Amino acid sequence: MNELIEFISNNLQIIYIVILSIFVGVEIIKSIPAVLHTPLMSGANALSGVVIVGAILVMLHSNPTDYVALVLGFIAVVLGVLNVVGGFAVTNRMLDMFKKKK
């Protein structure tokens, strides 16, 4: 627990930047028209793939006793995989709307 508190206190500015970027991202996504969501989902899937690979590399190079890095890396991998799978599901569903019905 002390490691987590020390990590947060050492990286407080970075945490503020991440929180601010989350709020800015939500506001930007809300203002995008529905027609552009399919191309943006494809881009988000590519970015999430990069996040997954980066998180795996960070976990590979971290110290085995550094539980904070391992837990954060694991959470990044899980959330990245969920985003990729959900993005492909939404993209596939939207593309099915444009197919001719038999």
Describe the structure.
81% of the residues lie in helices and 0% in strands. The chain is mainly α and 102 residues long. The protein has 2 domains: 1-31; 35-102. The radius of gyration is 18 Å and the shape is elongated.
Write the layout of secondary structure elements.
Elements lengths: L1 H9 L1 H19 L6 H25 L5 H30 L6
Protein name: proton-translocating NAD(P)(+) transhydrogenase
GO molecular function: NADP binding; proton-translocating NAD(P)+ transhydrogenase activity
Function: The transhydrogenation between NADH and NADP is coupled to respiration and ATP hydrolysis and functions as a proton pump across the membrane.
List keywords for this structure.
single chain, mainly alpha, 2 domains
User: Counting H and I runs of at least 4 residues, what is the number of helices?
Assistant: 4
| Global outline | elongated
Query: Helical amount among residues, as a percent range?
Result: over 70%
| Total count of strands | 0
Uncertain stretches:
none
Strand content: under 5%
Alpha carbon gyration radius: 18 Å
Summarize the structure.
81% of the residues lie in helices and 0% in strands. The chain has four helices and no strands.
